[in-house]
Amino acid sequence: MIVCVCMNPSYDRTMEVAGMHLGETNRVLSSQSVPGGKGINVSIALDILGQSSICIGLAGEKNRSQFDRMLKEMHLHGDFLSIPGEIRTNIKIIDRDQTRLVTELNEPGPEVDEKTLRHLTDLLLSYRSSISMLVLTGSLPPKAPADYYRQVIAKMQKHGIPCVLDASGEALKEGLKASPFLVKPNRSELEQLEGTQFCSPQEIAACAMKYVKSGVQMMAVSLGKEGALIAGADGVFQAKGVKVKTLTTVGAGDFMVAGLIDGYLRTHNSQEALKIGSAMAAMRITSLTPDREEAEARIKDIEVSPIDKFPKELSGAGE
Ligand SMILES: Nc1ncnc2c1ncn2[C@@H]1O[C@H](COP(=O)(O)OP(=O)(O)OP(=O)(O)O)[C@@H](O)[C@H]1O
Ligand SMILES: [Mg+2]
Questions:
Q1: Radius of gyration (Cα) for the chain, nearest Å?
Q2: Which of 18, 19, 27, 72 is the most exposed place for a label (fewest CB within 10 A)?
Q3: What is the C-alpha separation between 290 and 301, in angstroms, rounded?
Q4: Residue 192 has pLDDT above 80, yes or no
Q5: Position in ligand 1 atom list of the atom nearest CA 281
Q6: Pocket test for ligand 1, best of 188, 223, 249 (most atoms within 8 A of CB)
Q7: Residue 310: which pLDDT band, with cuts at 50, 70 and 90?
Q8: What is the pLDDT of residues 92-115, one digit of tens each?
Q9: Helix 270-286 and helix 252-267: axis angle, to 10°?
Q10: Considering the domain 1-180, what is its CATH architecture?
Q11: Distance, CA 14 to ligand 1 centroid (Å)?
């Protein structure tokens, strides 16, 4: 079973307005609320792929009963520790007819303390005999130390559980020090980490391979509409971006993470992981109701090829 850690889940409330006017009363045309957060998105995508998963994390006690009910309705499994405070609400306002822009208002979520984090680590460890992979994704809640993901990765990997990290800023920087099995930064997260701007896929490939050489098993870098690449023991491969009609890019990275995991668990091959990851991302951005058949249909559009033109000394993981 795959565990998706959800440190700071949310109610994602999406509202459509005909035109968004600041400082005025705006009539809402439609609205819906669903449980959100990156870990939950990954779990939804894994479910589409037929991989069983559970969301484990922290949930504000004041408004969690509705959250539990919604997870159940979505056929998602959850094991959340109740903490003081409220599950946050993230509001997305879609200006349907005028600018077509999406305005987001994201709450920070409840603060956590050391004791709570210790309990969460213990809860994760209590599942260790049945975990095939552990996914740490999204930002840390207020007051959590930047190295919390690093601590969890170190503890879990000591028990032989491969960990996947999709984070940014300090959480990514610290997490990398524990050499997670798979890391999925996007281009700007990697640029921020490195303090540089990449000029070519070859430069990104070389950077990803640097992390593979230092102990990370695989690093996949997503490049938005340019596609993605993956570095692993057998070299670096890229999947070019597919030209699709984009409905939303929200959650593309999360669906990619789920596809990477599914592809790897089934084939132990990084190229296959990249293929399924890219197909899942493409499906997410083109469909509001993605399903398994569509994911399978998307796979044929994805072309994966080696990136071979980067500095020779970085061309192999074991050198
Ligand atoms: N405009 C687009 N056209 C085609 N494919 C896209 C587009 N945007 C994203 N993708 C696909 O989705 C993948 C992940 O997108 P992106 O690099 O934006 O991830 P991310 O920034 O981590 O996303 P998230 O907001 O979910 O964290 C890309 O590698 C690509 O395969
Ligand atoms: Mg992302």
A1: 19
A2: 27
A3: 16
A4: yes
A5: 12
A6: 249
A7: low
A8: 999 988 898 989 999 999 999 999
A9: 150
A10: 3-Layer(aba) Sandwich (3.40)
A11: 20
CATH of 186-319, one of 3.30.470.20, 3.40.50.970, 3.40.1190.20, 3.40.250.10: 3.40.1190.20
The token pair that represents 47 in the structure block: 């479910």
Q: Residues 125-164: pLDDT tens digits?
A: 999 999 999 999 999 999 999 999 999 999 999 999 999 9
Neighbour count for residue 55 (Cβ, 10 Å): 24
Domain edges within the chain: 1-180, 186-319
Q: In the structure, what pLDDT confidence band is assigned to residue 315 with cuts at 50, 70 and 90?
A: very low
Ligand nearest the Cα of residue 284 is 1
For tokens 């006690």, the residue is 61
**186-319 and 1-180 share a CATH fold:** yes
Ligand nearest to the backbone CA of 226: 1
Which protein residue's CA is at the shortest distance from atom 6 of ligand 1? 225
279-298 tens-digit pLDDT: 999 999 988 778 888 888 88
